[in-house]
Amino acid sequence: MSLGSGSRARRLLELLAAAVAALAWLLPYAWMVLTSFKTLPEIVQHPLALPTRLDLGAYREVFATIPVARTMGITFVMAVTIAASQVALALPAGYALAKLRFRGQRGAFALVIACLLVPAPATFVPVFLMFAKVRLIDTMAALVLPFAASALGTFLVRQALLGVPDEIIEAARMDGASEWRIVYGILGPMLKPTLVSLFLVSFVFHYSDYFWPLVMTTSDAVRTLPVSMALLREQGTGARWHIVMAGNVVLSTPVLLLFAGAQRHLLRAVRPQ
Amino acid sequence: MTPRARWHPWAMLAPSLVLLVVFFIVPIGVAAYESFFSWDLLTPPRYVGGANYRALFAHGEVLHVALRTLGYSAIVVAGTLSLGLALALLVDRPGAFMAIVRASVFSAYVVSWVAVALLWMWMLDGESGVVGRWIRVLRGPTAPASSVLGDPRWALVALAIVGVWKLAGYAMIIFLAELQSIPRSLLEAAALDGASPWSRFRHVTMPLLMPTATFVATTTLVTSFQAFDVVRIMTQGGPARATELFVYAIYEQIFLDLSVGRASALTMLFFGMLLALAAVQLRVWRRAAGTAR
C-alpha cells in the first residue's frame, strides 16, 4: 500500500495550496521590484498597475543619496572580518575543549555556554559606554570586536571535534606536526562542512544586522547598508516608496544571490543536531 | 589527550575567552553597576540607590513593556509554529515545484529584517499599499489612521504577523528535517492497519514531532522577545506606545532620553526575563527529550 497518494482531487488541492504559499512569499518581492521601477506619479495614482516603462529614476536617487559602493564595501568588510575571525578563533578553542585534558577545562566550557545566554540586546548599553570611554564609537572596531569570538561557533566546533578519533591527532604528533599545524592544517580541512556553514551563517547575519551598527554609530563614518537603507525612508517626505524599494532591492540582492548559490550550507546550519 | 605543554590549552582558548568575557560577561556587571546611578552622559554620574528601579516600576511601566513583549512573542510563536508545520507537511514531497516553494518561503528568513520591515510598511500603506488599501476598506471609514500601523489596537498584531512571515520558513525547514527522518515503514504499518491519513498524522507523526515543536517554539520565543528592527523601522514604538517592546524601550531610554541609569536598570530586568525564559526552555527541552525516549 502506498502513502499520500490520495484522490486526484486531493492532490490538486495540495498543489494549489503550495502554489498559494509560494505566491504569499514571492509576490511581496515582485511588488518590491515593480515599485522600484516606477515613478512617483505612478505609485501615487496607479499603485497596483505595472510600470509603463522601466524607470531607473529611483535607483539614480538611491545612488545619489547614499555612497552605495563605499557603504556596501564597509558592510562586506565588517561581515567577512567577523565571520573569518569567528572561524579562526573557534577552531583552536574548540580543539582545547574537545581534545585536550587540563585543569580548568570544565570552567572554560561553562564560561562559553554562559555567553550563549547573553544576546546583544542585553549588552549594548554597557558596551556602548565602554566603547565611548575609549573613544571607539563610530569605528570598525566597535562593529567587529564584540562578535570576533562566537560562543555558539566555539560550541559547534567542539561538538564536531568530539567525533574525530584521537588516533588522527596522535599520528600527526608522531609525524612531528606542531599543535597549530594539527589545528589549522589537519582538523580544519576535516571540519570543512561545519566551518563553511558557520562562516556563511555568520556572514549573512552580520551583513543584514541593523541593531548593532545602528547603536554603535552616530555618524556616517562606518555606516552599513541596512542602516543607510532604513534612513532612506526616514529622510523621505511621505510617499517616496519607489526610492525605498530600490534601496531594498540593492540591499537584498547580494544575500538572495548567496542563498541561491549556497542554499545547502545555510540549511544545514539551521537544522538542530 | 594530554596537551604537549601545559600552556597550550590556554593559549588556544585565550583569544576567545578574553573577547567573550569582555563583551558578554563584563557588560552585565557594568549594567548592574550603572543601574544604581543617575547619568545623562554629559554631567557626572550621581549615586541614586534603587531609584531607577523604583521609577520603572512606579507607574507599571516595566510591567506594560514586559506584557506587551510577551503578547507580541505569543502571536509570533503560535503563528510561526502552526504555519511552519502546515507548510512542512505541504511541501514534504519530491519534485522541482516543491523545491521552489520551500526556497521561496525560506528566503524571507535569509533576507534582512530591514528589507522585510520596509517592504511590509509599504504593503500595509493605507493609501497605496497592496494589502493596506484592502485592510482599510475592511476597517471602515471611522478607523483611526489610514494604515493599521497607526492604529493602537492593531499595530502590535501587524508587527507580529510580519514576524511570522519572516520566521515561518525557519520553522518549516526544521519540521521538514524531522518529518524526513520518520521511518516510512512506521506510517505504512499504520496504513495497513487501516488508519486514515488524519489518524496517521495524529497518532504517529504528531507525537514524533513534539520534541521538534518544543525546540521551534522555545527558540522562536527567545528570538521574538528580542524584537527591535520591526519596531524601530515600522512604528518607533507608537502609536501611543502600543508597540514599545523591551529592547526598543531600552534604546529609547539611552539614545532619546539620555538616561544611562534607567537604561541600565531596564537592561538588567530584560536580562533577568531572558534568564527566566532560558530556564523554562531548559525544562521544556528536558521533558520533551524524556518523552521522546
Give your account of this protein's structure.
The complex is a heterodimer of chains A (273) and B (293). With 273 residues, chain A is mainly α. Chain A has helices at residues 8-36, 40-45, 57-65, 68-99, 105-116, 124-133, 140-144, 151-162, 166-174, 179-190, 192-208, 211-216, 225-235, 241-270. Chain A has 14 helices and no strands. In chain A, α4 crosses α8. Chain A is globular, with a radius of gyration of 24 Å. The longest helix of chain A is centred in the first third of the chain and has 32 residues, at 68-99. The mean pLDDT of chain A is 90. Chain A folds into two domains: 8-59, no CATH class; 68-235, MetI-like (MetI-like fold). Chain B is an all-alpha fold and 293 residues long. Chain B has a single domain (59-292), classed as Orthogonal Bundle (MetI-like fold). Chain B has helices at 8-34, 51-58, 61-91, 96-110, 113-123, 132-139, 155-181, 184-192, 197-225, 229-235, 246-256, 260-292, and strands at 37-38, 46-47. Chain B has a two-stranded antiparallel sheet. In chain B, α2 (51-58) packs across α12 (260-292) and α5 packs parallel to α10. Chain B is globular. Classes of the chains: A mainly alpha (273), B mainly alpha (293). The interface between A and B is large, with 98 and 96 residues.
CATH fold label of the largest domain in chain A: MetI-like fold
- Spans of chain A with pLDDT under 50 lasting ≥5 residues? none
Oligomer: heterodimer
CATH topology of chain B: MetI-like fold
CATH architecture of chain B: Orthogonal Bundle
Question: Mean pLDDT across all residues of chain B, rounded?
Answer: 90
Radius of gyration of chain A: 24 Å
Total number of domains of chain A: 2
Please report the two chains with the greatest interface, counting residues with C-beta closer than 8 angstroms to the partner's C-beta. Answer: A-B, 98 and 96 residues
Biggest sheet record of chain A = none
Which range best describes the helical content of chain B: under 10%, 10-25%, 25-40%, 40-55%, 55-70% or over 70%?
A: over 70%
Which CATH first-tier class of the largest domain in chain A would you pick? Answer: Mainly Alpha
